Structures are given as structure tokens and as C-alpha cells.
Amino acid sequence: MNRFFNWIRSLFNRTMDRLEDPEMMLDQARRDMQVSLVANRERAVQAITQKNRLQGMLEEAKKKSAQLESQAATALKTGNRELATQFMREKMNHDASVTTLQESYDAAVQTVEQVKIAMKRQEEEVRKKTAEALAMKAQWKQAQIQNSISKALDGLTFENQFEGFGAAQEKIREAQSEAAARQEMLGTSLQGKMLAMEDQARDMEAETELEKLEARLGMRQQTTSAPASTVSVGVGGAPSLDAANEAVAKSEAERELEELERRLKGA
What's the CA gap between 124 and 33, in Å, rounded? Predict the structure, then answer.
């Protein structure tokens, strides 16, 4: 039941909105002005018609009065005074009618002139109001167009519409950054391997050069015979101090050399 009443209310409001539409209101006002103008023109025509009728009656009464006066003169000329008197009495009655008709005709002329002035003003007012109605209708159309444009602009949601685009672009950038990082790590690993291989080759070359140096210095033979031949005996059968220091130095050098060999082999 409430839905039915709500439907009736919405239908009534929609009908009232249509009836209160400015364009329809202006058209109705223009029609009302045209109807009023037509009605006033009809009244003016009737007033002019009555004025013309009074004018005709006045002219006829004047002609009749002139005719009676001529007949009275003719009767006097013929010596018929009694007939002339009757003509004069009848003329006097027509003269009275002429006076009354003249007053009515003068009043009608004034009324018709006022009606003509009023009609001219009304026609000018109708033309003015018609032009204003057209201008107002144009303004109403312009306002509707502006409202439509404003509603269309209000409905545009650029940020929400392109939010997915921005998120996709951000993910693509992250993927590109990750790919670049992986490429960088891969390049670093290969470079490290290459450097390690170069270091190993250099170590092998250094080992070869070191062996050559040992051969030139005769150190490779001394390392095997040094403990029996290089130690000198001091007074009383004990090794001398120089011999002991030399032996210690050689043993430390041998340990360092062995450590270097292990590092090279490990590399």
C-alpha cells in the first residue's frame, strides 16, 4: 500500500514538474497574450462597427432634415404654408435626433480612438513579451545545457577510472626492477667466476715462477739437506747462536712457504 501511495506521489510530482517547466509556462503565457489580443481586437471591431452605424444614422438623419427643409421651402414657394409647417415640424424632430446621434457619435469616436490606442499598446506589449519569452526560452535551454555539462563533468571519475592502470604500471615497474636486479646478480656471479679463474691462473703462474726462483736460488735442494748440513756446531759440541737463529729463520720460512702452497692448492 505504501508503495502505491509513493508511486502516486512520484507521478504527481513528475506531472507538476512538467507543468512547472519554464518553457511550457512561457508558451502558455504567450498563448494567453495572443488570446487576449484577439479578444480585444474583436471588441475593438464591435466598437468601430457601432461607431460606423451611428455615423450612418447621423448622416441619414441629416439628409432627412435637409430634405424636409427643402420640402418646406418648396411648399412655401407654392403658397402651401400648412404643408410647409408640417415639414418644418418633422424637420425639427429629425434635428433633435441629429443632435442625439451627434452626441452618441462623438462619444463613439472618442471611445474607438482610445480602443485603437489601447490595441496598439497591447500589440507592442505582446511583441515585447514574445521577444522576452523567446530570450527566456533560450536562457532556459542554455541553463539546461550547462547543467547537463556540469552533471557530465561531475560523473567523470578519472582517478578511479585509471586506478587499475596505475597499479598495473607499478607492478610492471617492480617486475622490471626485479629483472634488472637478477640480471645484475647474474652478471656479478659470472664476473666473480671469471675473476676467480683469473686469480687461479695467476696463482699457478706465480707458483711456477716461485719454483723457478727456488731452483735458481738452490732453495729447493737446501730444504731437503738443510737440517743436516746447515747447522754448525759451537764450542763443546753445542750449536752456535748464529746457526740456531738461521735454523729458526729457515724453519719459519719453510712454514710460510708451506702455508702459501696450501693456499694455492686450495684456490
Answer: 11
Tell me which residue of 117, 143, 121, 128 sits closest to 30, measured CA to CA. 128
Between CA 31 and CA 142 the distance in angstroms is: 23
Distance CA 88, CA 71 (A): 9
User: Of 212, 192, 210, which Cα lies nearest the Cα of 202?
Assistant: 210
Q: What residues contact 80, with CB distance under 8 A and at least 6 apart?
A: none
- CATH number belonging to the domain at 2-155, selected among 1.10.287, 1.10.357, 3.40.30, 1.10.101: 1.10.287
Q: List the alpha helices (DSSP H) in 78-157.
A: 81-155
Q: For residue 52, what pLDDT is reported?
A: 92
| Whole-number Å distance between alpha carbons of 194 and 203 | 14
Which residues have C-beta within 8 Å of that of residue 130, sequence separation ≥ 6? 30, 33
Nearest to 111, CA basis, from 54, 72, 149: 54
Residues 209-223 pLDDT 10s = 888 878 877 776 544
pLDDT tens track for 184-195: 766 566 666 677
* Structural contact between residues 108 and 47, judged by C-beta atoms closer than 8 angstroms: yes
> What is the domain partition of the chain in residue ranges?
2-155, 218-266
